[in-house]
Design a protein that fits this description.
This protein is mostly helical. The protein has helices at residues 23-29, 38-41, 50-64, 78-110, 129-157, 169-230, 243-259, 264-267, 278-291, 293-303, 305-330; strands at 160-162, 165-167. Among the domains are: 18-110, Helix Hairpins (Orthogonal Bundle), CATH 1.10.287; 216-329, no CATH class. The chain contains 11 helices and 2 strands; from the N terminus they run H-H-H-H-H-E-E-H-H-H-H-H-H. Strands 1-2 form a two-stranded antiparallel sheet. Helix 3 (50-64) packs antiparallel against helix 4, helix 9 (278-291) packs across helix 10 (293-303) and helix 9 (278-291) crosses helix 11. The chain starts with 22 loop residues before the first helix and ends with a helix. Keywords: Membrane, Transmembrane, Transmembrane helix.
Length: 334
């Protein structure tokens, strides 16, 4: 970048000596031209960094601001401040354009196959830490870009045969992962199919068990009625004279027995408690539950059903008298 035109500040010395220069004398000596180098106006070289440019602008703006140090004879430094501002904006714009051009050139060179990473820009003196960090990140990105294109060119030249077709190592890796995924999905489907089959088998087994249980319940109920008839007891409702009521009572008792048939042995002793046979059936049930069906049948045949009913009736009366006495003792007496 070349700078032309009259420079307001000819020296690039630090600003320690810049304060002694008469700004009004320099700015009044010549007007700022649009073609004048903005870096020379600010007292910098064209290769100055962005941090140096901003620092110099802030220093000059503090010194030339009209409110900071007005002229002693009523003059104004507004024009000088405006000129500094314009020079700073123009210099910053030139720096941005230069950076964009460098990025475009580096991108074009990196996109060519087999190209190497561009050489890093030379270190500028007095660079800020942030600028150094940005530059290192940019250089790393360029190296990664170069490695990517180099690997792509190598994979393009090194081809192998997979499934009768030419494929690069990258394609081989993709094919291998795809096949593994397909096998995994197939194993998962087979596992789910096995679970469904097992559930179907379990459901069929449960249905068979339920059917066998119901069949055993009906059979046990029939055997129980036959045993009760052998003892001389009626398993139907004796208070009902009609045959229809007797059959309905028997069917309801059988339905209730089936409904409670989860425990075949426990509910096998259930009988109808209606009519005159209610107390007899209950006592006989207790006897059967205590000694078992076979023992109860043998006892009934030996002693007789009438003696058993009489014995349990006396026991019931004694128990009622005991309960009445206990209730009477619990009540308060005057």
């Amino acid at each position: 970048m070349r700078c032309s035109g009259w420079s307001l500040l000819c020296s690039t010395r630090p600003l320690l000596n810049f304060s002694c220069i008469s700004f009004s004398r320099f700015f009044s000596a010549c007007a700022a031209s649009n073609h004048e180098c903005p870096f020379r106006v600010l007292g910098l070289t064209p290769d100055a960094s962005a941090a140096e440019l901003r620092l110099r602008y802030l220093q000059l703006a503090k010194q030339l601001h009209p409110d900071a140090s007005p002229l002693p004879f009523g003059g104004s430094r507004a024009s000088d401040f405006v000129e500094i501002r314009r020079a700073y904006e123009k210099a910053k714009q030139l720096q941005q354009q230069q950076q964009q051009q460098q990025q475009v050139r580096s991108t074009d060179s990196a996109q060519k196959p087999g190209s190497t990473a561009p050489a890093a820009a030379p270190q500028q003196p007095h660079t800020s830490p942030q600028e150094m960090k940005t530059r290192r990140q940019w250089e790393e990105q360029q190296r990664e870009r170069a490695r990517f294109w180099a690997d792509a060119e190598r994979d393009k030249n090194q081809t192998n045969t997979v499934g009768g077709k030419d494929a690069s190592p990258y394609q081989q890796e993709i094919l291998r992962r795809f096949q593994n995924k397909v096998e995994e999905e197939q194993r998962k489907r087979e596992k789910e199919k096995g679970k469904n089959t097992q559930q179907t088998v379990d459901a069929a087994t449960i249905e068979r068990e339920i059917a066998a249980h119901e069949e055993a319940t009906v059979k046990a109920w029939k055997e129980f009625k036959e045993e009760m008839r052998a003892f001389g007891f009626n398993t139907t409702d004796s208070s009902s004279s009609s045959s229809s009521s007797s059959s309905s009572s028997s069917s309801s008792a059988e339905a209730k027995y089936k409904r409670r048939g989860t425990d075949v042995y426990g509910y096998k002793m259930w009988i109808s408690r209606e009519g005159s046979n209610k107390q007899k059936m209950r006592k006989l049930k207790l006897k059967i539950e205590r000694y078992g069906l076979e023992a109860a049948a043998a006892a009934a045949l030996a002693v007789g059903a009438a003696a058993i009913v009489k014995h349990y009736k006396r026991e019931k009366e004694k128990r009622k008298e005991t309960e009445k006495g206990a209730v009477y003792n619990k009540q308060p007496h005057a």
